[in-house]
Amino acid sequence: MTSLLKRLFFFAVGLFLALPLIVVAGVSINEKQTLAFPPQGFSLSWYSEIFTNPEWRSALVASLTLAATSAALALVIALPLAWFLWRRVAPWANIFQLLGVAPFTLPPVITALGLLTFWATTGFYGQPWTAAISHAIFFVTLPLVTLSLGFSAIDRSLVEAAATMGADDRVIFRTVVLPLILPYIVSGYAFAFVLSLNEYIVAYMTVGFTMETLPIKIFNALRYGYTPTMASVTVLFLAIAALVFGLVARFGDLPKLLGAMGDER
Amino acid sequence: MRREPPQRLADYGPLLFPAGMLIVFFVIPFATMIAVSFFEREQGGFYQPAFVWDNYARFLSLFFGKVLGFSLFLAVAVAVACIVIGVPFTYLMSRAARKVQILWLVALLSILSLSEVMIGFAWSTLFSRTAGLTNLLVAIGIMETPQALTPSFGAVMTAMTYQALPYTVLVLYPALVRLDPTLTEAARTLGASPIRAFFTVVVPALRNTILATLIMVFIFALGSYLLPQLLGRPQHWTLSVLITDQAIYQSNMPFAAAMAVFLVLVSLALVGLAVYAGRRKEAA
Amino acid sequence: MSGLILSNVTKQFGTFTAVNDVSLSVPDGTFVCLLGPSGCGKTTLMRMIAGLDLPTRGSIRLGGEDITQVATHKRNLGMVFQSLALFPHLTVGENIAYALRIRGVPKEEQTKRVDELLAMIHLGGFADRSVTKLSGGQRQRVAIARALAISPKLFLLDEPLSALDAKLREAMQVELRQLQQQLGITTIVVTHDQREAMTMADTVVVMNGGEIRQAAAPVDIYRRPADSFVADFIGSTNLLPYTVDGSGRATVFGTPVEGLALAGAMAGTISVRPEDVQITAPGNGTIDGSVTFIRDLGGTVETFVEASGQQIVAVSAPRTRPEVTVGQQVGIRLDPATSVVLAR
């Protein structure tokens, strides 16, 4: 009885989470440009539209470029910081950890507005590269958290063992720490990449009038009416996210990454 | 490994770039925003340096009070709904087989990362007249004709719960997965039914975690800016929407900045209050 | 002067003194065990020898050179960690070759040395295995081979066998001792297992409370313990109070013990090993008491006697066991040759 109840509860939550996506997937294969569900006819043309229509394609390219560069920058900020906090006793340096986590924890509109005023004041407002820096700061939390987790998982006696065998700090980092931390670097990058791909408000406030990322493009399109390409892009993005997180789960320990330390099941 | 304080200046090297980036692109923008909140607005969308409280004085209007009240109410409602669904769900998920857990985690992460624009679009489709839920009800014969369920408060509330639920589950997950399973087993041997054991053992044991999660989800919901716009009527606009609107469309940066500062203060104050309450409960 | 010489080494963590004014000289080629209960400072002392912790005061010299402040990676030593600390991302061969790779030894030479070491630890052909797929004993051997790859002057092992089961541990103790003698390398092992220390060491250094209580050969530590801590920690013993009477004789529970060499104090403690306690008929100049319990372990028999409120244990082989029963009145005779007067 309780087992049935449990299944029913799982099913209900699953349905709630899946329903909007099923409908979106449905309308994305409509043959004509209508918002109809169940779909009328079958066509994948709204998917090819993303790549053939120059407007959608350039938005896709802009989004991918922004996500790739900002995630890399976020990683470059997070890695030395996480390493320093792990390697040294410097309680005051935790302030930077706090600063790294703050943008992601506060309502995003605050970070967005802060960056908007900053770029406007410095005169760089609207430059595409400002979006990359803005996203890197906004999402630095993700690699910072995964890397801190990764460093704390390193048995310190491994580092000591390397030192007794003649390795200095630099060599230890290259031969021991880096190989062990690599899965966390990859997952930190993956998290930042996927979230940057989907981010709207920070991108909109910093470069919204000069550059169109896909979320901005969808929002602008929504104001002028409906096109099934929105649906196909949503499905595409969902697939990318599922693929990336699926890969992280396949090659890394996802439950552990999400904080389930010491879970040996 | 000997963890020791930095000895030489060179030991601080690794900190240079991260600290510089965070200070220049987070601390300074934050400070700039605070400064702008005291500036005067000029005609034509610009602002000039000044030190006036005018932007904050505008909070003392009925309109602003209503927006603030609604924002807080909406965020609380969403947070409570997410906790009510999320705690039992996360508990059951954390007890499931590892493969099942991973499948759920991948799905939750994918939905969590989905752009707010896309979530808004998905729900507006689901609540639409032509492709929505009501078509299903018509098909079963419960309803006569399909109708649009948006814009409405229910639509805003549902979509925001949808957006925040994966976040809730992922925040709860580490604590629940680490919860000693023998606790409930002990309760079971003492005669409690599984549901009773959940409410008498799991929930009290996680009281502080649940409270902390409630606050996190509350802040998360407070940050929602697109869903109220896409699925609600103007009276369902939240503070975040108002800030965006003032900054982008009304070009009133000083007022937008003042509201953002206010939003930060409200968030921090509520966090402080809840942490204080949690501590006192713990001490009792 | 060669060998390892510690002079007045002290280590403080905040207000806690982990190692207090320790001086020790380890000649080249000897095998030393640092033995003591947990928290006695033995691991901290070893970490200072390795350079993983720096002494608060004192100096450490190796082969005539002051290495107190030398960084760990410049000390050219080999160390086996309690957790073994094998690199999980490297194979068995890569783990063993690590120190050689760091030093830029040519690839062919690395391979040759790895094969040599693998043969030495009886794991020939294991070079390409993953270290995570080895058994406990195999991992242990790999850790030892890795530490010996550069033929270090000093070989340190921190509780190296603690993760193994009892049988394997005993076998590894013998193997380790034979290996050390074969290589003639100066070796220091930290352990809390007195049996392990007795099996392997030339010199056992017994530590407690951050201080060295006695440093001597295993047999001497057992037969001539310096104080009641050492006597009690190494093996089991009977600690009996004595006083010196007016005629200068030592008496235990009022019974004189003839011929005991006294250190001058008027009262103190003597240590008598259970196997040195002789049970005879009461009276006639013996310490008298009654038998409270007999524990027959098959190989040995322990007889518990209560005399003047204190329990005394005698151990004997089954063939020479005293013919006594529980409740019987017996006498105990102490042999001055096996009764040790303790310093404190």
UniProtKB/TrEMBL annotation, chain A:
Keyword Cell division: no
Membrane-topology descriptor: Multi-pass membrane protein
Subcellular location: Cell inner membrane; Cell membrane
Transmembrane stretches, start-end: 59-86, 98-120, 132-151, 171-195, 201-219, 231-251
Cited SUPFAM superfamilies: MetI-like
The keyword Cell membrane is assigned to this record: yes
Keyword list, A-Z: Cell inner membrane, Cell membrane, Membrane, Transmembrane, Transmembrane helix, Transport
InterPro entries: MetI-like, MetI-like_sf
Main subcellular location: membrane
Domain of life of the native organism: Bacteria
Domain called ABC transmembrane type-1: residue spans: 60-249
Family indicated by similarity: Belongs to the binding-protein-dependent transport system permease family.
Protein name: ABC transporter permease
Source taxonomy: Bacteria, Pseudomonadati, Pseudomonadota, Alphaproteobacteria, Hyphomicrobiales
Automatic annotation (TrEMBL), chain B:
Listed Gene3D superfamilies: MetI-like
All copies of domain ABC transmembrane type-1, residue ranges: 68-274
InterPro entries in UniProt: MetI-like, MetI-like_sf
Keywords of this entry: Cell membrane, Membrane, Transmembrane, Transmembrane helix, Transport
Predominant localisation class: membrane
Location in the cell: Cell membrane
Domain of life: Bacteria
Bilayer topology: Multi-pass membrane protein
Claim: Translocase is one of the keywords in the record: no
Stretches that traverse the bilayer: 12-39, 59-90, 102-123, 153-176, 197-227, 255-278
One Pfam match: BPD_transp_1
Protein name listed in UniProt: ABC transporter permease
From TrEMBL, chain C:
Highest classification ranks of the organism: Bacteria, Pseudomonadati, Pseudomonadota, Alphaproteobacteria, Hyphomicrobiales
Name of the protein in question: ABC transporter ATP-binding protein
InterPro entries linked to this entry: AAA+_ATPase, ABC_SmlMolc_Importer, ABC_transporter-like_ATP-bd, ABC_transporter-like_CS, Mo/tungstate-bd_C_term_dom, NA-bd_OB-fold, P-loop_NTPase, Transp-assoc_OB_typ2
Keywords on record: ATP-binding, Nucleotide-binding, Transport
Limits of the ABC transporter domain: 4-234
An example Gene Ontology molecular-function term: ATP binding
Record family assignment: Belongs to the ABC transporter superfamily.
